[in-house]
Every structure is written in structure tokens, then in C-alpha cells.
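for the writeup, i need someone to sanity check this before i put it in the appendix. the sequnce is what the collaborator sent (i think, or maybe the updated version? ugh). structure was predicted straight from it, no edits. if anything looks off just tell me and ill rerun, i have time this weekend
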Amino acid sequence: MMRPRNSLLLLIAGGLCACSVLRKPASPDNEPTLRTLAGREVVVEPDPGIAVSEAQTIAAYREFLAAAPNAPQRSEAMRRLGDLEMDVADQSGAEAPGATGPDYRAAIARYQEFLKTYPQDPGNDRVLYQLGRAHEQGGALELALQTLDRLVRDYPQTAYRDEAHFRRGELLFTARDYAKAEQAYAAVLDGDPSNPYRERALYMHGWSLFKQGRLEEALASFFGVLDMNLAGQEGDTELDSLKGLSRADRELVEDTFRVTSLSLQNLQGAESIPAYMNGEARRSYEFRVYQQLGELYIKQERTKDAADTLGAFTRRHPLHAQAPVLQARVIDIYQQAGFATLALDAKKDYVAHYGVDSEFRRANPSGWEHAQPLVKTHLSELARHYHASAQKSKKSEDYQEAVRWYRAYIASFPSDPEAAQNHFLLAELLFEDGRFEAAGTEYEKVAYQYPPHAKSADAGYAALLSHAAQEKSVAAAQAPALRRTAVESALRFAQAFPADPRTGAVLTNAAETLFSLNDTERAASVAQQVLALDPPAAPAQRRVAWTVIGHTAFERGGFAQAERAYAEVLMLTPEKDPARGELVERQAAAIYKQGEQARAAGQSRDAVAHFERVAVVAPQSAVRATAQYDAAASLIGLKDWDAAARSLEDFRQRHPKHPLQGEVAGKLAVVYLEQGRWAQAAGEFERLAAETKDPQQARAALWQVAELHEKAAGKSGGSRAAAAKAYERYLQQHPQPLEPAVEARFRLARLARADGNTPRELAWMKELFQADQRGGGARTDRTRFLGATAALALAEPSFEAYRKVALVEPLTRQLKLKKARMEETLKAYGVAADYGVAEVTTAATFHIAALYQDFGRAMLGSQRPKGLSKAEREQYDVLLEEQAYPFEEKATELHEVNARRAAAGLYDEWVRRSFAALAQLRPVRYGKSERSEGVIDAIR
């Protein structure tokens, strides 16, 4: 923190200079003018500053405090004076470390005076911090603790919070009050995560718990320290290998490991470790925890515990890069202790875990490479040990154990100079022991996995003999697998020794065997080798080869190649051979599959050509009908409607009992629709509706029939009876679901209107309205819209009945009747409006408003009683206007309701008409932009 130690002296000096300037007498003769100033040269010297020492500054502050007991700057001066005295004490201790020690009494006295004088100063947290530090530096640890306690109590949010709690923890720990020290360190840990005391606080928090005997909790803190220093760190088991750690950091890590190991030892040893390895950060250094605990046991001469601890890690993390290192340490421990049997078992474990076939190799290639020197050493030792035992005992189990380690050695180090010789001996040993399968395998390795040598061909042939001997000694169920193994050996022999006179027979036998084993791809490859033989193979062998090639090509999707291969086979097959029929079917299937491939590739015209070629190449094949159907489908995709119609019509006639007949109607319906042949398309949909067993499909088809008849009638201008009949049939058969049933009634009403049959139209509208009202939860937005539309239409008869009532004498009876008819009409329009459908609501609102307006005008235009005088007539007219005015106001109000909907974005025909009506009713307000139209006629 910067302290303005010299500010007061500078202020005083500046004030004195200012005063001297003010006191300088002015002389008129010497006063400068513009002319004199223009020629004057002014040199500005650099300010050398004021050299003031800390002692001078302290003296100045003390002088200020003595001279200005009531100055407003007194508190700041007192605090700064305390800081200066604190700095002087700090510097005296640093400059004379061998002296009796720095004297903080002046600073302590100054801070105590400040706190007493200014107990409520907002900066007292800093004063308390400085006072506590002064007590601590001066050796008054108890007073320092009391001061820091006061600081964190009175100022829990102070900027010195974390450091204060840390210092409290240190003081409490020194005083052996470990419980309170734990709390103080915990407060630091609860503070700012980036505070510089966090790591040390975490370490000491663990020690506080350790001292209390709370080892599990202490370990949590110690592992937190390790997390901060070791997470993600690489290196071997030695802590000196860690990079990026300072000397202090490394010492902290070593101390933490030491106390961690002691804690674990006092719990359950290695068994206690996994509970704390609860994240990726800790798993990155987990091996070190086991290693450090193991080393502690070694120092304590607890050999078994040390080995078990290191082994526990390798069992828990067998794929870890450091697992081989720890396991090697286990072997060293046992050997150094003279435990030969345990050391031998440990070597076996090492080879098993880190050998060539280990999971460790696949999971950790780099670590596996580092482990190989020891693997080789241990394998060699094990093989020699059991080889010597077998030579002495002649027991099969000893031979088998020796074979095991030879195998492991050869597998792990195939490039070793002695590998080929050892391998051959291994194969001979297996053969003599009657293990023909294993012997054959090893002979093949000797023959093919090493550079050519004198025994290469003999070893390959010996492998074939081993397979033959094995096949003779097994059950029939095992024969296929053995034959496959023999084929592999034969193919390898033919490839390695092509000049051997037995190669031709071996290949032919291998091709036949692979074909019988359904390994068609490899059989085809061998068949190609048979066809390439020079001189050529016999015709029968070539026929087998071409057959295999055809089957294999077919299975992998090479249908053009399969077609050619089958043609070759047919040329090599006699006419009366029973196999020809199947071959023809295969050829037809290959052509058909080419059509499917072309279709999948989007080459529809080529697909049609392939499908149609089936009938030319193989007219009697079973796939011909399917090919014709697919040709028609592809023509549909090409939108070649005429050709598709001809193909489908021919298919229907040529293959009446084919399973695909059920699909023809749908396809023809699509074609007829595209051709505009509505009646024929309707007929196909009727066929679909009658033939399908799917209720949903039948319903959709029947609806399509009705729509197509409606469309045909509309296009031709002919009768709509067929469409109406289809919709009625749909309603009869499918009263549910609700929405299409309501839609059908609407279509029927529309057809009746087109026929001019108003009663029939209203009847369907009424049925539509009732169906929607009874719909319950099945109602949709569409049914509500149609229901609202129907309600609006059903209001028209009421309105017509209202219009027919004329206001003539006897006026009282007619007025009552017209009013009753008006109420009925309003109720009918209200039903439509209650639906809440925007388009219908605006229409109903307009009609209701127009109805009110019409009633008012009807009253004004009603027949006048006879015999009225002129005065009576005028008075009667005034009364009529008074009676009609509320109706006109109601009409205006409703039209305005409609007009306000435009602000919400709803501006349809009825909103526009309401604006037009308002232009007549309120021309001053609405007549500027809207043109009026006939109101009474608009009701209809």
C-alpha cells in the first residue's frame, strides 16, 4: 500500500512559498509590459523535488498532531504516522536481524490511541490489522490473537479477512488450540478462492484435524493440497521428477505425502485410499499415494504390507502407466526379502498384466513399451525355470507350463534372433504331445512369419499334416471349423510356395471347401486364382469357380458381374442339367437387382430398362411379375403417366392372382389423378376402399372418392349427385372421427347450395352445427369454425322472418311481432358469435349491428296513424325518433367494437363493412377515409 509520507511537508513548503510571493512588494518601474515580455527569455529549471526522510516525515506528523489538535486531517495524520512507525520497525528488523528485535511499541501505541480516539472510523479494520501485525511481530502473540479476533468479529467483510483468519489459525496452532485453529483455517478456505493463503491454510487445516485425531477429515484437506500441486502433473514415481514446482512447493508436497501416509497407515492402509480418489485430478496422482504409503511401510520393515499396498494400486488400475513400475517394485521387495515363491508369482503377474496380449498394451502403448525390458527378462527366467523342471520330471503339466512361457516370449519378442529356433522347438513339442491344433498353428508361424529358411516349406507342409491329423480325431460337429483352418493353411501355402507342384490341387480343394462353408468372398478370390491357372483347370473346376464368383458378386451387390458370371456358368452347364433352372432364376434376379440399384441411384429410366429386360432374358422366371410392377412404379416416378397406366393395366390383366394386385389400384389412382381422369381415379379409390382391410386406409380412400366426384362434377359442369352420394356414404360408414364428418356435412351443404336447394343446404348446416355441439373433446379448430359458419347460416331464416314483418297498422301488433322476430335473430347471431371464431365473430357482430340499425330505421319509416293533425304528426315523429335513437346508438356501438378489432390485426370484410356503416352513422369521425355502402342489404 502506498503511503503519502511526505505529503504534509510538501503542503507546508508549498504554503510558505506562496506566502513569500504574496509579500513581495510591487514596483511600478519594474512592472513588465507586453513589449518587455516579448523579448524576455524564460528558463524553466527542472523541479529537484524535496528530499525528505521517514524520520523527518514522522517528526512533521508529530508536530502537526501537537500543533493542530482539532484539525480535520488529524485522524488521517495519526493513521499515517502509525503506518510510518510500523514501517520503521519493520525496516529495523530487516536491517539488523541479529539484534534484539524491532520495536513496535510506538506503532502499537499510535494504533491504540487511534482506536480509542476514533472508535467508529470506517477504516478501523485496517488499523486493527496493522495493530495485530505489530503485536505479532513484537512477540505479543496473545494480544495479536485478541486483536485479530476483534478484527474478524467487528469487520467480517474486511479486505483483510482471509489474511486475518490465516494469522489467527497460525497463532492458535502455535498455542496448540487445534480445534479453534481448524475453524480459523476453514474460514480462510471459505473466503476468496484466489486468496494467497488458501493453499497453506488447507495444509494447516489438515494438520489441525490430524492433531485432533480426526484422520479422515484431515485426509480430505491434505488431498486438497495435493490437488493444487499435482493435478495433471506427469513424471515417474520419484517426487523429484515433478516439473514446474518450486523448492518450497516440492517440500510442501513431500511433507503432505508424509502426513498423508501416516494418516492412512493409522486408518486401514491402502484400503482407505479409494474413498478419496473421487475425481480426475486425484486419479492423475493416485499412484503416488500408494507408492508413498508403500515406501513408508518399507522404511518400517513391513515387507508384506508394502507389497500389498503397491499391488493394490495395480489391481485397482491395471491399465495405468505407472502400474508396471509399482508391480516391478513388488518383485524387488520380495526378492530382496528372500520370498522366492512370491517373487515367482509376482513375475507371472507382471508378464500377464504387461505382456504382448495384455489389455495394458492396447490401453497404454507408451507405458507398455517402457515395461518390455522387464517383461523379456521375466519371460526368459520363467521359461528356463519350467523347461528345466520338465526335463527332470517329464510331466505333461511341466511341458505345458514351459510351452506357455515360450509362447509368451515368442509373441512378445518375435524379432529376437532366437525366436525362429525356439518357435520350431515349440511346434515340435506340441506335436509330440498330441496337441495337433496348436502344433499346426505354430508350424505355420515358423513357415510364414520369419524370413525364408531351410525349414520354411517343410514347416508349412507339416502344418497341413497337423490339420489333417486333428480332423481325424474330432467329432463331425467340429469338422467345419477344422476345415476352415485347413483352408487358411492351404491358401497360405499356395501363396508362399507358388512353384510347389501341390499348389494347384490345394487351391481347387480350398475353393470348394470355402464355398461349402459359405465363405463366399474368399471362395470367389480363390476361384479367380483357379481360373488364372496355366495350364487351365478342368471344365468342371472352372464351372465351380464361375458359380462361386456369381454368388459372391450377387451377395455384395455386384449384380452386373453376377449376371455375366451366371451366363458363363450356363454355357458350361448341359441343357438337361437340373441345375439350369436355378441358374436362370439367379440370372433373372441379378437383372432385377440392377434395376433396384439404378432406381436407388435416381436413374429411373435405366431402372425401367432393367425391369423390362427381365421379361426378355428370363420370361418364365418368378421375378418377372415383380419386375413389371416395379417398372410401372419407376414410370410413375418419371411422371410418364401414359406408359405407367399401360404397364399397370397390363399387369392387372396378365397377373390377376399376384400378391401385388392389391397395390395396383393405388398406383393407378395416382396415375389417373395426374392424367386428370377424375372418374377413373375415383373408381380406383372405390376399389381401394372395398378391398383394403385397414379401416383408416378405407376411410381415406372413400373420402378421396367423394372429393374426386366433386372435382369431376365441377370440371364438367355435370351432376353433383355422385359427389353428394359419396359424401353421404362416407358419413354413413364413418361418423367418426368428428372433424372429417363435420367437413363432409359442410361439403354436402355446399353442393346443395350449388344445386339451389336451400332447404337441403340449411338441413345439412343444422346437422353440422349439432354434430359440432355434441363433439365434446373431439372438437377441433376446424369443427368449431365450421360450426360457427353453420350457426351464422342458420341465423338467415330468422333474419328473413324479421324482414317480412312490416310496421303498418295495426302498428302495436306489428311492432311487437317485429321485435320478437328481432330477438330471435339476435339470439341466432349470438350463438354464432359465441363460438369465438374471428371471421364469424366479425360477421355476426356486423349483422347484429345492422339489425339494430335496420330496426331503428323501420321504426322511423313505419306507417303513421290516420287522422293526425300536423302538430300531432310532428309530435309523433319526435316520439319515433326518440324511440329509434337507442337502436341507432346500439348499432354504432357494435360497429365500433368491430372496427376496434382492426387495431389487433383483424381486418376482414366485416370489419371493413363496419367502418363503412360508421361512416354513415358518424360521418364526422369515420366519413373521411371510408366510403359508405348499403347497410340493410349488407345484412344478407
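The radius of gyration is 54 Å. Residues 203 and 225 are 6 Å apart (CA to CA).
thx in advance!!
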